[in-house]
Design brief:
Layout (H helix, E strand, L loop, with lengths): L2 H9 L7 H13 L4 E7 L2 E8 L8 H5 L5 E10 L6 E9 L1
Antiparallel strand pairs: 1-2, 2-4, 3-4
Length: about 100
């Protein structure tokens, strides 16, 4: 089992995901154009956090929607760090 798959399996253990679902999630995270930061169970499904070092206005919705984990419920984008902001945190909430 890959390190990423172990992280996903342990963080989402409460969801009792199948191996196919774990593989789909880890593949989607690995193919993301953004660096992976965290994954966890949240109130609306599964929250996946990524970081982005560019300007928020340069983000493309297509890049976010291309991360195929499940049905996207919420997209949150907010600056991270102290001014001037060093990076942006992107949180995608998916229902599995």
């Amino acid at each position: 089992m890959s390190d990423m798959k172990k992280i996903v399996a342990s963080k989402l253990a409460a969801n009792a995901l199948s191996d196919d679902q774990l593989e789909r999630i880890t593949t989607a995270i690995g193919n993301s154009p953004f660096p992976f930061s965290n994954i966890d169970v949240c109130t609306r499904g599964t929250c996946v956090d990524f970081t982005y070092s560019g300007r928020v206005k340069d983000l493309k919705l297509e890049d976010l929607m291309g991360i195929d984990i499940g049905s996207v419920q919420i997209i949150e984008i907010f600056p991270d760090g102290i001014p001037p902001m060093e990076q942006t945190l992107i949180r995608l909430t998916h229902s599995l």
